[in-house]
Amino acid sequence: MNGTTRAPLLQAEALSFRFPGETQGRDAVRHASLDLYPGEVLAVVGESGSGKTTLLNCLAGRLAPREGSVRYRCASDEWVDVHAMPERQRRLLARTEWGFVEQHAAAGLRMGVSAGANIGERLMGLGERHYGRLRDSAADWMSRVELDAARIDESPRHYSGGMRQRLQIARNLVTRPRLVLMDEPTTGLDVSVQAKLLDLIRLLVARMHVAAVVVTHDLGVARLLAHRTLVMQGGRIVEHGLTDRVLDDPQHPYTQLLVSSVVAP
Amino acid sequence: MDPTRAPHTAPPPHADRSAAAQADAPAEGYNYAYLDERTKRMLRRALLKAVAIPGHQVPFGSREMPLAYGWGTGGIQVTAAVIGRGDVLKVIDQGSDDTTNAVNIREFFARTTDVATTTRTTDATLIQTRHRIPETPLREGQIMVYQVPQPEPLYKLEPRRAETLALHAVEDYGLMNVKLYEDIAQWGHVETTSDYPVRVNGRYIASPSPIPAFDNPKMDHMPALQLFGAGREKRIYAIPPYTSVQSRDFEDHPCTVQTQGHACALCGCTTSYLDEIANDDGSTLWTCSDTDWCEQQQLAQGDAR
């Protein structure tokens, strides 16, 4: 490994976020710090309301933290401060080097246009002006996420939940991002579809060497996908480490509770 | 439209007061061009800003006009703000000078400003239009005022105003091509035949108002000043003279103008934009949508004979 691959891709330092109107001391995220390395999958687990999604939105630049900073190492090896850079640059980054998979596919997709247009949108945003090429890469990506390429002109409204989620992943990966942020990508899908989707994500992430932050309340997802896991409680990161270590040998009382409360069939 | 109609000649203001006593009488108790001076100044400020940033939508305080939304309240306010005593006004609706909307707006300004009106494109200094650009090439010094129903070209795909503002600001126009992509995917070609989005001066994407895509090429480097007013949406934008206006398209599906495959039944013109008119007996008649153009062509042919 050379020096650049060993350097982190994303660094968050002492992030704190409080929703407007909240009283002092009721921060949704408190002093959260993390490093993410290229090609690494990091799971953020915790109960509902523990600040997982808020942390993810802070990382993505969608919410401005009250304190702390998020730094990202661009493809050009230059460090940028996600929250200090101008909106134009942040949006460019968000549609080139980053991807964001929403919990509800309808929020991350354009439901009014066809699947092909959904996949092509980011490419068109980058200046692709050739219909034939757009079409080819849309079909290519549909087959990569195991969608029937013959349904390229159908609206995502006609897709099932699992198919929508796969379409959303294709839409994000088409520009070959270096970092993908996922907010509960498998929640709301039935178990067998979840398993297939997890398999797919694991495969794509490994093949394309993208780094990912996956927010989930499902420890199984963390176990399957993530190299490292963060456990959050009440806005704080209470434990972090290699996924197997965190799940097999939890140190913090809350993690112990979380692990022991998983129902095994 | 009656194929045997008489050629238009604009009556000089107040020429025939006995016949149309009420209609032609100057409106009393109103300021010049209906709007008060402060409102006009507000409009002019917005217009100056719009001209300075071609294609950028400038918000303005749209007033209630004696006209329903959708009938040209934006255009009429812009016209009121720029019309001077020396102007010669022409108003067209779908190319025609004699439809209700065009006649009413022309009369409105004749009564509130006393300026001369005309139906001849070459004589006019100020042309308010709904959904057409005259066939006669415009020249320097003329002003086109467009009535715009929806100034936001991205609206159909992104209904959030704040978001479209941001997309314009950061020049993130992938979305615009999504719409064209959809057309090609569904129909095999770009099906958008009116209100075809354009990029102004290589920067802002703007709606040309619902003119047919046939007219889009006329906007490119037009010597006349083009002003756009959307009354309900409260936006003004402009294209200064000699500004590049490019229709959005794909490399392998360039924006093309569909030919209608007919000649005008009245003047025989094959290059103009035609209207299809249903006759009583069920047949159809194709005639120039631009009535002034049609008349000039007929007059020229009459002279030649």
Task: List the defining traits of the structure above.
heterodimer; A: 265 residues; alpha/beta; Rossmann fold; 2 domains; six-stranded mixed beta sheet; four-stranded antiparallel beta sheet; 11 helices; 39% helix; B: 305 residues; three-stranded antiparallel beta sheet; 8 helices; 16% strand; disordered N terminus
**Major sheet of chain A:** 6 strands, mixed
Kindly estimate the percentage of residues of chain A that lie in beta strands according to DSSP: 15-25%
Spatial order of the strands forming the largest sheet of chain B: 1-9-8-5-4-2-3
Q: Which range best describes the helical content of chain A: under 10%, 10-25%, 25-40%, 40-55%, 55-70% or over 70%?
A: 25-40%
Q: Largest interface here, residues on each chain?
A: A-B, 26 and 22 residues
User: Distance between termini of chain B?
Assistant: 25 Å
Instruction: List low-pLDDT spans of chain A.
Output: none
CATH superfamily of the largest domain in chain A: P-loop containing nucleotide triphosphate hydrolases
Here the CATH topology of the largest domain in chain B equals: Rossmann fold
Rg of chain B, Cα atoms, Å: 20 Å
Summed up, the domain count of chain B is 2
N to C succession of SSEs of chain A: HEEEHEEHEHHHHEHEHEEHH
Q: What can be said about the biggest beta sheet of chain B?
A: 7 strands, mixed
Question: What is the typical, i.e. mean, pLDDT of chain B?
Answer: 89
User: Beta fraction of the residues of chain B?
Assistant: 15-25%
The end-to-end span of chain A amounts to: 42 Å
Helical fraction of chain B equals 25-40%
Q: Note the quaternary state here.
A: heterodimer
H/I helix tally of chain A: 11
CATH superfamily of the largest domain in chain B: Bacterial phosphonate metabolism protein PhnH
Q: What is the annotated CATH architecture of the largest domain in chain B? A: 3-Layer(aba) Sandwich
